[in-house]
Write a structure and sequence with these properties.
Elements: H1 5-14, E1 16-19, H2 25-41, H3 54-65, E2 71-75, E3 94-99, H4 101-104, H5 106-112, H6 115-123, E4 129-137, E5 147-150, H7 152-155, E6 158-159, E7 164-169, E8 180-182, E9 193-197, E10 203-207, E11 219-221, E12 228-232, E13 237-239, E14 250-257, E15 261-262
Antiparallel strand pairs: 1-12, 2-3, 3-4, 4-14, 5-13, 6-15, 7-12, 7-14, 8-11, 8-13, 9-10
Length: about 280
């Protein structure tokens, strides 16, 4: 179904758009089941210690920075004991899985390439679309970490800046379990910073505007299971820590146009033998 022009107007005005019932409950459940299978098969031995010391955090960064063409697992910050062991099961400790699920796993690929998503991306005016990255986010009960206010284009910079984020609620996302918050119209404030990779492979921020976000303008984006939240790449958004007894599973895709320039000093890169693909 084509996106009505009035909804495109809302998206251009606010920088986000909520589409309820975009995916079925059974599709949400199938993705959750597949994520559970991947976590069950994941052996954290050798990775648990990555998060325990300063030097090993550097190694953890490498594990993250090389994940653009892989399926990798990342833990919640508060998942570990001081000795580096997990406080609870790995199933209750994983923060997210990323960043090439949509290309490497058939279940996630099918979910990411439905006719409905193809039509939606076309309605947004993204020509020759490419699926850049994907993440399965768990937002674990009690230990789900805060994500501070940011713009996706800070980390996934393109010229022109026409990246879109597709955020699928696989469970109800409410204030109590860490829903998204966004600044309506904040995408018109411009890009505040870029996270860039140096020639030596180290990451750092280039700051264009050091002023604080007007977080008093943040509004909660509470949505039921099956909803899709469209996010402009320049939209400031965040999520609070989840201290409830309920998880907040979500799946995200980022889409760019093959006609835009994707920066070679972005953190996420693909090797030549695994180029970005579209639908």
């Amino acid at each position: 179904m084509k996106l009505p022009s009035e909804q495109l107007t809302y998206y251009d005005r606010d920088g986000f758009l909520i589409l309820k019932d975009f995916v079925t409950a059974s599709s949400c459940d199938a993705l959750r089941e597949r994520a559970a299978q991947l976590v069950h098969a994941f052996d954290p031995e050798g990775l648990v210690s990555i998060f325990s010391t300063r030097e090993q955090n550097r190694l953890s960064d490498a594990y993250f920075l090389d994940s653009g063409d892989k399926i990798r697992f990342f833990f919640e910050e508060n998942a570990f004991q001081p000795d580096g062991t997990l406080k609870q099961s790995k199933e209750r400790s994983i923060n997210k899985i990323g960043h090439a699920l949509h290309d490497l796993d058939p279940v996630f690929s099918d979910f990411s390439r439905t006719p409905e998503i193809v039509q939606l991306v076309s309605d947004l005016g993204i020509e020759r679309p490419l699926l850049l990255q994907s993440m399965y986010i768990f937002k674990q009960p009690r230990i789900g970490g805060e994500v501070t206010c940011h713009q996706d284009s800070t980390f996934l910079y393109t010229e022109s800046q026409d990246i879109a984020g597709l955020w699928f609620a696989l469970e109800d996302a409410m204030i109590d379990n860490g829903c998204l918050w966004a600044i309506p119209g904040g995408h018109k404030l411009g890009l505040k910073s870029r996270w860039v990779r140096s020639a030596e492979g180290e990451m750092g921020f280039d700051v264009f505007d050091p002023t604080a976000w007007p977080e008093e303008r943040l509004v909660p984006l509470e949505v039921p299971k099956g909803s899709l939240i469209l996010l402009n790449g320049l939209l400031p958004h965040k999520s609070l820590a989840n201290r409830s007894e309920k998880s907040r599973h979500a799946f995200t895709l980022h889409v760019i146009s093959a006609d835009c320039h994707y920066s070679v000093n972005n953190w996420l890169q693909r090797p030549a033998e695994m180029p970005l693909r579209g639908f």
